[in-house]
Write a structure and sequence with these properties.
The chain has 435 residues and is an alpha/beta fold. Helix content is 48%, strand content 14%. The protein is built from 16 helices and 14 strands. Strands 1-4-5-14 form a 4-stranded mixed sheet, with helices on both faces. The chain has a 4-stranded antiparallel sheet with strand order 6-11-13-9, with helices on both faces. The chain is globular, with a radius of gyration of 21 Å. The relative contact order is 0.14. The mean pLDDT is 96. The structure holds uracil. Uracil binds next to helix 9.
Length: 435
């Protein structure tokens, strides 16, 4: 069948054969399938859904579009974590160094911003000099010598995901269980890992706000990971409000550095998700006999500064510039939002905050948009905190004064609406664990 016939067939909701899926993925990387055709496939896949068989085949075909990082013979268990995407979700930046400090190897191939959510790669690339584009040979060297790398998928690793991911980001075709499963697991299979902890978000800032839909995704990921010989555990966590205090690439890197340096300064919800996910990785890697023991080990490595040292070492090895031993401060225009009245700080809806930051230049609106890494906000007043009139609620920043003022204005009206909603108590951040 020609690609045109295949697409027509998909538009009508028919299941594709394994050969059709493989030749479609092959056509993506050899450019025989155009971006328009790939976009048509994505839209049809979102409308009709993919069957479990299509999902499993698509995952394998996308993983086989590149090569796998050779992790044989490494002295440590190779375990990774991935999230379904969130707002202010900088867990990976804290988690990878902490997991290494605990005794694991972490080969992490991550994504860029997708839809309204931020991506680990965009955050890392906001560090001047940081190189996320590594050859497979360099990935292996870093794993052998330092037990960690954090990189983007490349022409060598899951290139088909690179193509589909960028198109999904700008065509409104992110929220589909099959596409998300194939995107995540094609990258994870390419890493050569033996175990994966999935952080599946629910709440209004997540791709699947409803927990039941999140659980459907969890089942899909566990099934396909199992076929690929990867052990998995799922942490279900809340994404109704931004995770941590900062939203925006550069501000999130700064928050991560500060949090790793000073355990007590870390936002308690960010800390809870990080500790939970690293502990699941440690348990999965067989480094402890119980989850309680694993949690104790993670907290010890955080408190004794070894996670922080691993973080700085990883940045330097991948070319990131440290100034006086810290991530360098990006210059930007900034302003503060103060409270016009005395009140209790409400919970801010994650998705609305993310969209405001994206529109201020912090995310891509069309394929190839250059991101303003300085665009973002830091929420100074925690939800539920009583604030006086004139007290600072948030710091806002962006590359130009106009964008900074526009972002501040958008955030002020989000705060006003949140005040009217009157929710001051965020839900528990850890909802469930399935191991
Ligand atoms: N992370 C990914 O890598 N892909 C998705 O589709 C969603 C989150």
């Amino acid at each position: 069948m020609t690609i045109k016939e295949l697409l027509r067939n998909k538009r009508l909701g028919h299941e594709w054969s394994e050969d059709s899926i493989r030749s479609f993925v092959d056509g993506l990387t050899t450019k025989k399938v155009s971006s328009a055709q790939a976009g048509a496939f994505l839209m049809a896949a979102c409308i009709h859904g993919l069957t479990p068989r299509e999902t499993a085949t698509l995952t394998q075909a996308m993983a086989s579009s590149g090569i796998t990082v050779p992790t044989n013979g490494l002295e440590r268990p190779c375990i990774d974590k991935h999230s379904t995407g969130g707002v202010g979700d900088k867990v990976s930046l804290l988690l990878a160094p902490l997991a290494v400090a605990c005794g694991l190897a972490v080969p992490m191939i991550s994504g860029r911003g997708l839809g309204h959510t931020g991506g680990t790669i965009d955050k890392l690339e906001s560090i001047p000099g940081f190189n996320t584009s590594l050859s497979v040979q360099r990935m292996r060297e870093l794993l052998e010598q330092h037990h960690v790398f954090m990189a983007a998928q490349t022409d060598e690793c899951a290139p088909a995901d690179g193509i589909l991911y960028a198109l999904r980001d700008v065509t409104g075709t992110v929220e589909d269980v099959g596409l998300i499963t194939a995107s995540i697991l094609s990258k994870k299979i390419s890493e050569g890992i033996s175990g994966l902890v999935m952080d599946i978000k629910s709440g209004e800032g997540a791709f699947f706000p409803n927990l039941d839909d999140g659980r459907t995704l969890g089942t899909s990921i566990r099934t396909v990971a199992g076929h690929a010989g990867i052990q998995s555990a799922i942490v279900y966590s809340d994404m109704s409000i931004p995770l941590g205090r900062a939203v925006g690439n550069w501000l999130e890197v700064v928050e991560s550095e500060q949090a790793l340096r000073e355990f007590a300064s870390c936002d308690h919800r960010l800390r809870a998700v990080t500790i939970h996910c690293v502990a699941e990785m440690v348990l999965m890697g067989g480094l402890t006999n119980s989850i309680e023991e694993a949690r104790t080990r993670v907290v010890d490595k955080w408190l004794d500064g070894s996670g922080y040292r691993e973080f700085l070492g990883m940045i330097e090895r991948q070319g990131g510039v440290l100034v006086d031993g810290h991530v360098r401060q990006e210059s930007a225009c900034s302003q503060s939002i103060t409270s016009p009245v005395s009140m209790v700080m409400p919970c801010l809806p994650a998705r609305e905050v993310a969209i405001a930051v994206m529109e201020a230049g912090g995310g891509r609106l069309v394929d190839g948009d250059v991101i303003d890494n300085t665009a973002g906000c830091v929420i100074v007043a925690d939800p539920g905190m009583p604030v006086e009139s004139g007290q600072v609620l948030m710091h806002v920043s962006a590359a130009t004064t106009e964008r900074c003022s526009a972002l501040a204005e958008a955030l002020e009206s989000i705060i006003e609406r949140a005040k009217a909603r009157g929710i001051h108590e965020p839900p528990d951040v850890i909802i469930d664990v399935d191991r």
